[in-house]
Amino acid sequence: MRWVMAMVLASAFGLLAEEGTAGSNDDAARAAFLKGADAYRNVEFSEALLYFEEAYKLRPSYKILYNIAQTQLELRRPHLALEAFEKYLIEGRKEIDATRRDEVLHEIKKLRRVVGEIIVTGKTGTECRIDNEHVGFLPLAGPVRLAAGSHEITVHLHGEVICRKDVEIVAGKKRIEPCNPQGEESEEEGPEPESAWDVMSNTTLGEYEMDMAIAPRKEPSRLWTVSPWIFTGAAAVTAVTGTILALKTSSLNAELTGACDNGDCPSSRAGDVERLPRLAMAADIMFVATSVLSATAFTLFILRKKKERSDSVSDTGVKLEEDLTLHPVNRRGDG
How far apart are the C-alpha atoms of 53 and 67, rounded to whole Å? Predict the structure, then answer.
């Protein structure tokens, strides 16, 4: 993932003032949130996540979930970022503005291409760990989301490993994996579902798009991308043309100076005398056009750069909600 980070924290002390009178929990949540934002700014993402999660626990605002999702992305945990983004949409519903909903839905679609699910079955009451992290006791409440790739499943009874398996998680797919002591049959078996994304926390992505009336994500205009180069090329052409005309003007002027005695030119050079001011004017026009085109190209390059930074939602850097809003700034890598 490319690391480009820009963060704007505005109205931070208005963080939790939007609902009711701030109490002690609100003050503590505000303090945790600001510490998280500061840690994020300092590229201390693990610490930032702890503070954001603490703030959410003290003051469950859907806006903090956006920051948690962004932080999980920086920590290379796409499955946890996906869960946070989905929860953000569910809890925010129509309070989220259309632009942000479009952005988050776009992120969800991207993350679903690198995340899968697994249902682990086995002896009731045993502890399940995936990649040595506790995920619950069997039977689990639901499927576990994981980044696509290889993972180790272990099932523990009284602290001892009674089953160990290496599994391959396929993006967008859900698998059922029994994990029992050798010789024991699974308590629950079933076919592997074709897709892990039939539902999104009981609400399909399609239902979200229809419910929120979200417009399709617009890709940058091709003209916007190439127009600075078009003006740069035009400026180069006019500069060369102006230089050629200026050289011809200078050459012709030198010829007339030698051919004309005290300004009295022979009739054979009458055409050149008339052509000289026209050449000089044309050269001046080309140089003026070069200046205008160069200035336009430079301005377009600056504007395009700013647009790329503001649009890099899906590219690199970091966006946070501000003042619980913490509004976007720039995130991402395609991690």
Answer: 9
Percent of the chain whose pLDDT exceeds 70: 70
- Does pTM surpass 0.85? no
Structure-derived torsion over alpha carbons of residues 194, 196, 202, 205, reported in degrees to the nearest 10: -100
Evaluate whether 137 touches 145 at the Cβ level (below 8 Å).
no
Confirm or reject CATH 2.60.40 for domain 115-196, answering yes or no. yes
Instruction: Sketch the domain layout of the chain as residue ranges.
Output: 12-112+316-331, 115-196, 222-309
In CATH, the architecture of 12-112+316-331 is Alpha Horseshoe (1.25)
Tell me, what DSSP letter sits at residue 217? P
| CB neighbour list of residue 261: distance below 8 Å, 6 or more residues apart | none
Report the C-alpha gap between 107 and 318 in whole angstroms: 13
Q: Residue 178 is inside which H or E element, if any?
A: strand 174-178
Whether 92 and 84 have beta carbons less than 8 Å apart is answered as no
Give the tens place of pLDDT for each residue, 7-30.
323 333 344 444 444 457 788 888
Q: For residue 51, what pLDDT band results from cuts at 50, 70 and 90?
A: very high
Please tell me the predicted confidence (pLDDT) of residue 187.
46
